[in-house]
């Protein structure tokens, strides 16, 4: 089944929203944020919208360059604002880690189920691995 891909104008509108949100929050606009907003996997997005991605990255770089004050330590930035922003980013990263961990767990379960089905369909009998056998015999020897 083929996934319906949005038109270029819809993608451009999503990119504009991500750029506006990034400017509002004082964060960097990313292609990943656009992909999430549209619900499109990275590979599909990259393959179908490369011409738009290059322009978006250029706009994001320009926006980031004009948004930051001059100077190595961003002189004039309120420390409380920096702390709030860092805490927000930390919360976002923690949420992402939880999402990725759950995705990995689900993919592992799916892989094990598919492997079991494949073995059953092919008539393959799975033997326990060496670690499982050793753990069972070690505890029985004492």
Describe the structure.
- This protein has two domains: 1-71, no CATH class; 78-122.
- It is elongated and about 65 Å long.
- The chain has six helices and no strands.
- The protein has 142 residues and is mainly α.
What labels describe this entry?
2 domains
Summarize the helices and strands and which ones pair or pack.
Elements: H1 8-25, H2 31-38, H3 42-48, H4 50-67, H5 79-122, H6 130-141
Give the strand tally.
0
Shape descriptor: elongated
The proportion of strand residues reads under 5%
The averaged pLDDT comes out at 84
| SS field, number of helical segments | 6
Spans of at least 5 consecutive residues with low confidence: none
Number of domains: 2
Secondary-structure element sequence?
Answer: HHHHHH
Q: C-alpha Rg, in Å?
A: 24 Å
First-last Cα distance: 57 Å
Q: Approximately how much helix is present in the residues?
A: over 70%
Query: Which structural category do the helix and sheet elements fall into?
Result: mainly alpha
- Describe the main β-sheet briefly: none
| Oligomer status | single chain
